[in-house]
Amino acid sequence: MTRILTVPTQPIEGQKPGTSGLRKKTKVFMTPHYLENFTQSVFDAIGGVAGKVLVLGGDGRFFNDRAVQVILRMAAAQDALRVIVGQGGILSTPAASNLIRKRGANGGVILSASHNPGGIDEDFGMKYNGENGGPAPESVTDRIFARTQELTEYKILETEDVDLSALGEVSLAGMVVEVIDPVADYAKLMAELFDFDAIRNLFAGGFRMRFDAMHAVTGPYATAILEGMLGAPAGTVVNGTPSPDFGGGHPDPNPVWAKDLMDAMFAEDAPDFGAASDGDGDRNMIVGRGIYVTPSDSLAVLAANAHLAPAYAKGLAGIARSMPTSRAADRVAEKLGIEAHETPTGWKFFGNLLDAGRVTICGEESAGTGSDHVREKDGLWAVLLWLNILARRIEPVQQILSAHWAEYGRNYYSRHDYEAIPTERANALVQRLRDISGDLPGQSFQGLTVESADDFAYHDPVDGSQSARQGIRIGFKGGSRVVMRLSGTGTEGATLRVYLERYELDPSRHDLPVEEALAPVIAAAEDIALIREFTGRDRPDVTT
Ligand code: VG1
Ligand code: CO
Description:
The chain is an alpha/beta fold. Helices cover about 35% and strands about 25% of the residues.
């Protein structure tokens, strides 16, 4: 017995305008009507779901299974034609992006709070991607936000749960629920992009790798592709079974949260190559034997060597990086004679450039790298491109990096995060920087002279849209730089991110410890922004 209910409801405290998804404590999502209200806001903002095809899945975190059932019932109550859902409600973010594109769906709903921890006391999230497979642009997220403020009712079907364990199609009050293998289409795409024979030979020759799935969604993908299709020995993938609380850890692939991987890669008997991915599979971390590769360097190396993979053999149209990402990739673009773009933080800003064919490879300092194969960053894609390059160059990661720096110079890079600081203080710090930025050029701090300072405003060259106030950029003579901005993805207070960069052309100075190389830039950032005074902290919570 099924019937459609129209439930009266009230506006909710929803997503922040300008952010591409809603992330909240799981318990907030679990409060009565909250998930329903946000889902209704999304459906309303996209003009309803009647007659539409949607993709649905998430990273398997706590509440994923319940949320999928609610969204299916709401879509069915509102006459959606078909929902393509990953078996067990599972889909990585890049796999969902691929499915939307491949199946010509109208859009998709992805359940994840990405690298944030999961569990009843941790975080949950939901985001909407459009028909190009990418995060909804600001025009859509602003409409979603507006709907959350004026909602009065939602529609839902009252019925039993759909069995998502079996592949195939079932009808939910006339709507088709198509349960698919979450890995199959994605694995096929990867096999089209990369030289799987070369990578297979690499593993057959004894090359050893450790992939840490961090108990998150990439486990099944990595196991199927690396161990299944590419012949890497069993055990190459560790922490490969997704768990609702990610084994109690942060599924955040960086040296802090993937410390086990770092330890393994710096040990005596370290494997040749190490990698990790995040909660929803869109981020990546790359480690060679005894060397961590910063995401900014990884982007530059991938761009410089992409032609070694079949999908990019004809060259790249252009490279885009988010504004705080180091400028190492710009040097590669310059050498290749292709376009280089600097966009605000967040993958959605790459969408137009990718759709227009202006760029092929994109990256963010926060461990996000991807290409025009989907419209999200893609953790495993980055790992496979590295493997493809390693299979063709037959050189240790360390040597590839040294050669890269010798050719282009080295951009030393680090990010300092100050987490859960009172919002007013964080806002005051940024406002002050905005106010003084006009006076900074010409002034010197710790021996570094400011060359330029502004609050980054982006003008999208494809659709002409403007995005202002995207972060304070302070450039110094000689190529060093500090960027400061507030996180848009945190769920507690404000997070101040301080991005530090120093450019060094001289190869005799390419082997400095990163903290030492950046010491003057770190000190200058403190002098300019008075971080201690505003945050009350004398050191960052997380340094990556
Ligand atoms: C962070 C990163 C940003 C990334 C975003 C989403 O945002 O800095 O580069 O695009 O997370 O990543 P913020 O506003 O907290 O700095 V994920 O893996 O959530 O999709
Ligand atoms: Co993510």
